[in-house]
Amino acid sequence: MFDLILLISLLLISFAILVALYRVYKGPSMPDRIIALDSIGINLIALIAVFSIYMRSTAYLEAILLLGILAFIGTIAFSKFIERGVAIERKHD
Hints:
By secondary structure, this protein is mainly α. It contains three helices and no strands. The chain is flat, with a radius of gyration of 17 Å.
């Protein structure tokens, strides 16, 4: 029964990722697309976590940590690009 619940949750999380991909493609504005990309990152973390529980393995926990860090940095970089026009500022002497 627990395995069935995990498989259903994997299916629902996958559907949520597909919906977010649609928002990335059709989003009316750039901030909507950035929020959808962040949502995809969060859903991927959840997908890997549920899959790790389903497989009864801790081997995927490093991937979860790495994906969380990359999703956070990506969201910050996109937001900074929208706000200022550049993602990395360089000091000119």
